[in-house]
Amino acid sequence: APSATRATGVSLELQRAFASGLPGLEARVSWLFNRVSLDVPPQGAPAFLFSEYYDAWPTIGLTLPLGARSWGNRLISTRNAAIADARARHHSSESAAQQIQLDASLAYWRHSCAASRVELLEDFVERSKNRVDWVMRRRKARLSDSADLAQARAQLELRQVELEEARSRLRTARLEFWSLAGEDPPRDPENPRLLELEKAETPGPADAPPARLVQGLAALRETADALEQKARLGGDGLRTTVDLFAELGLKGRGATPADALARSLSLVRKELVFGVRIEAPLDLDARRTATLGHVHAREAAQARYQRQRRESDDDLALLRERLSDSGRRVALLARLEQTQLEKLELEQQKLRQGRSTTYRIIEIEDELASSRIRLLETRLEQMEAGLRLSSFSQTPTEG
Length: 399
What we know:
By secondary structure, the protein is of the alpha+beta class. It is built from six helices and six strands. Strands 1, 2, 3, 4, 5 and 6 form a six-stranded antiparallel beta sheet that branches. β1 and β2 form a beta hairpin. The longest helix has 69 residues, at 284-352. The protein is elongated and about 130 Å long.
């Protein structure tokens, strides 16, 4: 007998399951190639024709599930679950990408609004400085008293505080915008020329469902579908299965690889095995618990999808209402600004004629500054609502 046996081998297997024709049919083709070496002592050598040989074993197998997995139910569920998972990830990625684009657009217009606010307050600070100089000249000419000068200086100091706050907000908005843009802020402290918020065109509402909401809902729906298919898989996996199977194996052995391969294809040595395979789980409690778990997961996913769908409808209606409401308020505030400008001009004429007071001018300028800031903020609110609707209403990419 040989004192030692050494074998090295290579195997290749291809398997394919079919969803059409005979759904669920599984075909398998495998090839095993071995090299066997025998350590034969000298006294035993005549008993062996050779001390090294090769085996080639090609095998073809077919399996057709019956019963719970008949007609490819398990195969179809597995494939559908994989497709639903992939689509859910796709829609989630699309939703995240659209949200990043939306955040960058909103940050840009917040930056523009902050810059416009700084320019507005710089103008009012300059007005306040001119007011102080004018009151000081009138006081020297004994045409006004110390109270007028104190009021003018108080207004100037208040405007300077508001200007510093606006500049701080501008720096924050600038950093936020460049951060979302994925770039470092320019070293130049001067702000780049921005599109004026007041003159920008507001994106209008669209009748199509919001794309980001569509993408989010699609992700939830595909997740629910995947859990539905997995629930079916879980139930099928715990049921009794009946499979028809057949396997044809060809065996060839030779002193050389070519000899072994030729013998395996000559159909001289072949094995045919066929029959019925039955598998049944014995732990019924585990089967029932697992089935309930799959059912609960599926119901939870469906509930999340329905809830998100209702919330999406509410969000869409709210955004359209916000866009319409902010548009009306922008129109009203624009008319109010014009009225206050006319009132300020008339009051300044009365002051020059000695029929008004510095306090009244300051009061009207405060009202004008407040209305302009409100107009700017309302315009930003209108732009944000329009951008959200415009971004949401883009056609989603098919998964």
